Amino acid sequence: MHKTTDIAILFFSRSAAREAALKAWTRDPKTDYRLAGELIRKAKEKLHASPFPVYHVDETMQRGGNFAGRLANAFQLIFDKGYDHVIAVGNDCADLNVNWRQVATALRNGKVVLGPDLRGGGYLIGLSKYHEIHAIFDKISWHSERVFEQLKDHFKSVLILGKIRDVNTLRDVHLVDFLHEIFIIFSYKPKPGSLAKLQIPSFVHTSCCLRAPPPLTHS
Predict the structure, then answer these.
(1) What is this structure's pTM?
(2) Which domains are assigned to the chain?
């Protein structure tokens, strides 16, 4: 991939197989694999629609003894390609909707960019090459509801994006239209020749709206 900009996107994720095994939303491996795969596919689709090159770093490329180290090393991997700013996005947010021009302007003006999720984590972290990433990330309580606040408090100048939902539970799956549809398709197994209609549980949310992806706290 040729460098044509000073900004790149780091898609920091697990593979679909690993995500399905760890999240186990439905406890059915095949259904969970399809859900995870679709979540990652949608995330990539959104990210590749941005004006920046996208580098996907899953667990096969991640290096480090803990989450902080793996994320910091992934940032450094992209900085080492010659980029001045890197925007990290996770794979388990289905509603990613970013104003990339706004993010780019903020980064080039010396700001950090953070996207909080609804559970106190973060779905997006935009940093510049002069930040001491390893030292910063080592101080963050990853996998907790304090991640966003700790990151925000660490920096003086921060652009905060809107909050979005991450997908960690079966209820979260049902709240995302394209995942809900996959769940229904692959979890409904009628008997051969049966014409019985699919009964959707009353707690399931349905909507005609299309949703769209990634947090970094629950990897």
Answers:
(1) 0.80
(2) 7-160 (3.90.550.10)
pLDDT tens across 49-100, in order? Answer: 999 999 999 998 999 999 999 999 999 999 999 999 999 998 877 778 899 9
Order the strands of the 7-12 sheet from edge to edge: 54-57, 7-12, 85-89, 122-128, 112-116, 158-160
Q: What is the mean pLDDT of the chain?
A: 82
From residue 108, give the alpha-carbon distance in Å to each of 75, 85, 126, 193.
17, 8, 11, 61
**Alpha-helical runs (H) found in the chain:** 16-23, 29-48, 67-79, 100-108, 133-137, 147-154, 170-174, 177-187
Q: Report the alpha-carbon distance of residue 38 to residue 40 in Å, rounded.
A: 5
Q: Which residues pair with 135 in a beta bridge?
A: none
